Amino acid sequence: MTNEEFERAIDFLLKGQANLERRIEQTNEQLAQTNFQLGEYADTQTDFTRVMTSYLEEQAEINRSFRATLKSQDKANKAQAEANASFRESVSSQNEINNSFRATLNSQNEINNSIRATLDTQSEINNTFRERHESQVEINSTFQGELIAQAEFNNSFRTAMSNLAIAHERTETALVKLAQKVDRMAGTRGNSGSS
């Protein structure tokens, strides 16, 4: 083996090493990009959790308002029962009947106002619930899309890493074989020189 051939072999080894280092550098860049994308996904998850927390707090407030409405309705029902009892007790006297009747009308007006307020509140609760439900559907759709995109990205990343590992293994095998060949050539040359 001549010096020129030996130098070409060494040059080939160096080029192979440089290619391997370049691929390793590309792999590190891809890993950095992957980490960045995972960070963005974590931020998206945080935003989703914040939106869900806000929705649950608003739902709890709606439930408290609804319970307060039920209590108002119960008070109205009790007031109606008391008014009816007062009316029955006032049957013995016309004056008492008239007074009780006027009190009953007043109480009935309050009951009607309370019922209207209750209906308005219930309508607002229903509208709010529908809006929250639509918002939840949109959030779920967005989250499912993000999960699908993340799964596709993970599959692509695993495939790329597998291909890179195979290429790296093949490069190392080629370099080992080349080194062995260079060693054999160097040994042959040394034996020839000794002769």
How would you describe this protein?
This protein has one domain (3-190). Helices cover 96% and strands 0% of the residues. It contains two helices and no strands. Helix 1 packs antiparallel against helix 2 (94-194). The model has no long low-confidence stretch (mean pLDDT 85). The two termini are 14 Å apart. With 195 residues, it is mostly helical.
Provide tags for this entry.
195 residues; mainly alpha
Chain-wise SSE layout:
Elements: H1 3-89, H2 94-194
- Structural class by secondary-structure content: mainly alpha
Mean pLDDT, to the nearest integer, reads 85
String of helices and strands: HH
- Main sheet record: none
Number of domains: 1
Number of helical regions: 2
Shape: rod-shaped
Overall number of strands: 0
Percentage of helical residues? over 70%
Unreliable residue runs: none
What is this entry, summarized?
The chain is mainly alpha-helical and 195 residues long. The protein has helices at 3-89, 94-194.
